[in-house]
Amino acid sequence: MYQKTVLDNSIRLVTEQLPSRLVSIGIWVDVGSRDEDEQNNGSAHFAEHMFFKGTRLRSAQQISKELDLLGGMSNAFTSTEKTCYYITVLDDRLTEAVDLLADIFLDSVFAPEEIEREKQVILQEIAMVEDTPDDRVHELFSALFWQGHGLANPVLGSAQVVTGLDSRSLTEYVRANYRPDRLVISAAGNVDHQIFVDLWQDRVGGIPPAATTAPRRKPPQPGNVSARQIINRPLEQAHLIMGSIGLPNNSADRYKLLLLNTILGGNMSSRLFQEIREKRGLAYSIFSYLSSNSDCGYTAIYMGVDPKFLSESVGLIEEELGKLRMAGVTKSELAGAIEYANSGIYLAAENMEVRMTSLAKNEFSFGRYLAIEELTGAISAVKAEGVNELAQILFAADTLPLCVIGPVSEI
């Protein structure tokens, strides 16, 4: 059963009571790397780390020990638009879990000595991505596609900016962006809504509401359709991403795009996987995926390939996109994609963290609960004609933006 409460300061509390011994709790903040500039890029991610590094009541070691003693799973992450702190525990540890989450979220001290230590950890994290080309190429493609906009910012930030961040700048960033109107606290599992609300009311109900609404930066224009970036590095493979415009995550056409992506490169029976890996043996890893934000998005294809097959593989990808644009999808392909998507929804629904995440994301995107039956019903109602019309729009360009890392200098 889904329930929602909005506190007087506009913090939203959403729960879904389910038959389980587990409860997953998440504090979600509507802020991420998109909301940064070249002077503070990496602040949201750095602040996320610091929330586990000591409060007025608990040291970093005590926080780690209590998280372990709760016996569940805890973590945090930052994305382009969201920051989340979550914990999954047995239902009888709910009060303790809320107490710990509230303490680290409301009373972290951002001690300078802890910042200096954690700074080295984050610099290593940045270096790890630099040394992992199949990760790094995604960052580079986003920067290429959204060039000049906050969405081009890497979530981790740059080493130069991170090195310069300190307690004052991080504290100011949190104060400016961690506002009640940007907070959603969600929980899924064996949780009583009113008990959950009472627990959080005592802890966050007294936070004063934001004086003004802080609008997000305007949505970006689609990327330069002819932009190409090639990073020559001595690797065994060439790692490539090419893509096109996509849709916002609340678009009325989002289910059409989901199915289009599944047919293009979303599973093992997809066109790209079958043509490039199974039929020709050109690549081990090839897939398409969706990057959707609150007001924009892109559709992308990743491939890791022997450099000598790079040009041929790019040509085959472009050929498959042309076929989608010109001939569209078949009814049998669409039926298979619908079955695949709906099955995935039901399988994912068994995970309490997935349910908790869906609650928060739906609140941000739609301001309401989307039942599984509503999702699967909307997916099942998609027609081939609608998918084909969308393919003609998204893949209209003959040349798509492209990014490559590997031992190549041209394509």
Detailed description of the structure:
The protein is an alpha+beta fold and 411 residues long. The chain has two domains: 2-204, Cytochrome Bc1 Complex, Chain A, domain 1; 228-406, Cytochrome Bc1 Complex, Chain A, domain 1, CATH 3.30.830. 45% of the residues lie in helices and 19% in strands. The chain has 15 helices and eleven strands. It has helices at 43-50, 60-69, 94-106, 112-130, 133-145, 159-164, 167-177, 193-204, 254-266, 271-279, 310-327, 331-348, 352-366, 372-380, 384-394, and strands at residues 2-6, 12-17, 22-29, 73-78, 83-90, 183-189, 228-232, 238-245, 283-292, 297-305, 402-406. The strands form two sheets. A six-stranded mixed β-sheet has the order 1-2-6-3-5-4, with helices on both faces. Strand 9 and strand 10 form a beta hairpin. Helix 1 crosses helix 7 (167-177), helix 9 crosses helix 15 (384-394) and helix 12 packs antiparallel against helix 14 (372-380). The longest helix has 19 residues, at 112-130. The protein is globular. The chain starts with a strand and ends in a 5-residue tail after the last strand. The mean pLDDT is 95.
Architecture blueprint of SSEs:
Blueprint: E1 2-6, E2 12-17, E3 22-29, H1 43-50, H2 60-69, E4 73-78, E5 83-90, H3 94-106, H4 112-130, H5 133-145, H6 159-164, H7 167-177, E6 183-189, H8 193-204, E7 228-232, E8 238-245, H9 254-266, H10 271-279, E9 283-292, E10 297-305, H11 310-327, H12 331-348, H13 352-366, H14 372-380, H15 384-394, E11 402-406
Parallel strand pairs: 2-6, 7-11
Antiparallel strand pairs: 1-2, 3-5, 3-6, 4-5, 8-10, 8-11, 9-10
Helix pairs in contact: 1-7, 3-8, 9-12, 9-15, 10-11, 11-15, 12-14
